[in-house]
Amino acid sequence: MVGRKRDAAKELPPLSRLEQRIMGIVWNLGECSSAAVISEHNKSEQLAETTIRTVLANLRKKGYIELVPTIERQHRLKPAVSREKVGRRTLRDLVSGFFGGSPRQVFSYLIKEEKLSDEDLEALRKLIEERQKKGN
């Protein structure tokens, strides 16, 4: 079943920005109630509880979260796919859609437009050197 979920992550519909924010909270909390998601979200930005519950229901329909069996009165939720899987797919879609499939354009943009610290640049340089040593 776990293998099936990993494969299914490729087939999941994309997330809206609000769904991404709510999903990020679910990933951070792990197994949680909708009340916990609402409380966590509203620490930074106020949204109606019904809006957040609707987003959670949509995430469940899309296959991103699932219900956890419980004897509690409230439903418990947990991520059905990992943040890493969704992140990889989202990044591939971004590179393909906005940068013409060119990782070079992505790195060029990041280096020129984003405020990267010297530590960030050094870490990127080391990653590039490691990749070159592997011959990939």
Structure description:
The protein is elongated and about 55 Å long. The protein folds into two domains: 2-83, Arc Repressor Mutant, subunit A, CATH 1.10.10; 102-136. It contains seven helices and three strands. Helix 2 (17-29) packs across helix 3 and helix 3 (34-41) packs across helix 4. It is mainly alpha-helical. The protein has a three-stranded antiparallel β-sheet with strand order 1-3-2. 63% of the residues lie in helices and 7% in strands. It has helices at residues 2-8, 17-29, 34-41, 49-62, 83-98, 103-113, 118-134, and strands at 32-33, 65-68, 76-79.
Descriptors:
mainly alpha, Arc Repressor Mutant, subunit A, 63% helix, 136 residues, disordered N terminus, 3-stranded antiparallel β-sheet, 7 helices, 3 strands
